[in-house]
């Protein structure tokens, strides 16, 4: 079953599969194990799986029963997952459906609690519910269509606090605090697990790493980075987290560290392919199985340069530069395009957005933000399938 089916939740796939089977049960029963094998039952959710146990196919087919029971065990006995056969827990992502880009907080005098989103279908920025807290230089993660605002600072104090925004209800909710206060961290998500790497605690650059899942009550530690990194950027390929560049207040890095999250939780970070040049305060994202970085600062100048990493060749390549130099820029990917948002050009904060089309290999300006300028935190929420089908 295609990874790029556009659904909000995997239980929609399970529901469609069960309706197809039950429509002509006698003739389709024999195909049910093959059909259910393509449903990612481990991410369906506990209640839909329990309801599936009352379906005729659960009683009729030992193979289907085995698939459902394995997923139930995965959800109900998480401490035994390391000895269970692997299950597909990757969420489906449709590259052909544009996401909604949310810009949060930032360094502007009046914008560090503001939230607005860019709708690529309407080609405009739209204000929405403010954050409860003033935040700058914080991390943003998107898990299950929810935005997490993590750590950061108010200009004086570094935060441990975390808040979650539900885009369906436009409401904020407090979530468990980080273990350590930090700002200017690198943030990534792998299979619904949030990774927060490095940063700055008000005194020192950090190497520590914390992880969190929505079904956990608290954050947990993971092996630290090999070196302290503040103002680095993060991106994910497959199940590998790349923490790219950054600085330690004394030096700006061209080094990259990589963590393979598919291995043991004690797996250490390894150094990856070095950047073409040092940079910090840059943006990073993944698109089409490749990593893109844009902008930043190299210690002497603000950058408009853009590089791409090809994991198959283990090599960084230069691409067309942005129209403007942008330090503290946010970079996201959706609809096969890169969006470079906000930043600082060395003289002033920027509210503009540039869009990169891979096929054209050039940048052009999109609509400017209405509420923000300078460094903003950004996350992409997939457009709901209910919106697409209206």
Automatic annotation (TrEMBL):
<keyword id="KW-0677">Repeat</keyword>
<dbReference type="InterPro" id="IPR011705">
    <property type="entry name" value="BACK"/>
</dbReference>
<protein>
    <submittedName>
        <fullName>BACK domain-containing protein</fullName>
    </submittedName>
</protein>
<dbReference type="Pfam" id="PF07707">
    <property type="entry name" value="BACK"/>
</dbReference>
<keyword id="KW-0880">Kelch repeat</keyword>
<dbReference type="Pfam" id="PF24681">
    <property type="entry name" value="Kelch_KLHDC2_KLHL20_DRC7"/>
</dbReference>
<feature type="domain" description="BACK">
    <location>
        <begin position="2"/>
        <end position="52"/>
    </location>
</feature>
<dbReference type="InterPro" id="IPR015915">
    <property type="entry name" value="Kelch-typ_b-propeller"/>
</dbReference>
<dbReference type="InterPro" id="IPR006652">
    <property type="entry name" value="Kelch_1"/>
</dbReference>
<dbReference type="Pfam" id="PF01344">
    <property type="entry name" value="Kelch_1"/>
</dbReference>
């Amino acid at each position: 079953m295609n990874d790029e089916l556009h659904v909000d939740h995997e239980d929609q796939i399970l529901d469609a599969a069960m309706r197809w089977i039950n429509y002509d049960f006698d003739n389709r029963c024999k195909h049910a194990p093959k059909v259910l094998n393509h449903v990612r039952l481990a991410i369906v959710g506990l209640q839909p799986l329990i309801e599936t146990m009352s379906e005729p196919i659960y009683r009729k087919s030992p193979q289907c029963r085995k698939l459902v029971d394995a997923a139930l065990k995965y959800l109900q006995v998480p401490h035994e997952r390391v000895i269970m056969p692997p299950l597909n827990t990757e969420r489906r992502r449709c590259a052909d459906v544009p996401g909604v880009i949310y810009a949060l907080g930032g360094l502007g005098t009046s914008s560090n609690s503001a939230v607005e989103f860019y709708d690529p279908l309407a080609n405009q920025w739209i204000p929405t519910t403010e954050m409860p807290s003033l935040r700058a230089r914080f991390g943003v993660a998107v898990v299950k269509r929810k935005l997490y605002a993590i750590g950061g600072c108010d200009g004086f104090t570094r935060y441990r606090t975390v808040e979650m925004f539900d885009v369906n209800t436009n409401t904020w909710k407090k979530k468990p605090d980080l273990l350590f206060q930090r700002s200017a961290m690198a943030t990534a998500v792998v299979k619904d697990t949030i990774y927060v790497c490095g940063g700055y605690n008000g005194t020192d650059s950090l190497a520590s790493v914390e992880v969190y899942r929505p079904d956990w009550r608290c954050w947990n530690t993971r092996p630290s980075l090999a070196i302290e990194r503040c103002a680095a950027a993060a991106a994910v390929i497959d199940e590998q987290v790349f923490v790219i560049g950054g600085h330690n207040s004394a030096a700006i890095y061209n080094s990259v560290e990589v963590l393979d999250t598919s291995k043991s939780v004690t797996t250490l970070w390894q150094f990856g392919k070095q950047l073409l040049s040092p940079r910090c305060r840059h943006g990073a994202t993944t698109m089409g199985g490749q990593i893109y970085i844009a902008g930043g600062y190299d210690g002497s100048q603000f950058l408009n340069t853009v590089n791409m990493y090809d994991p198959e060749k283990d090599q960084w390549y230069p691409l067309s530069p942005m129209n403007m130099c942008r330090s503290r820029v946010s970079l996201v990917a959706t609809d096969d395009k890169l969006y470079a948002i906000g930043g600082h050009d060395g003289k002033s904060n920027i509210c503009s957005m540039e869009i990169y089309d891979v096929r054209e290999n050039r940048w052009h300006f999109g609509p400017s933000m209405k509420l923000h300028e300078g460094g903003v935190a950004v996350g992409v929420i997939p457009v709901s399938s209910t919106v697409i089908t209206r």
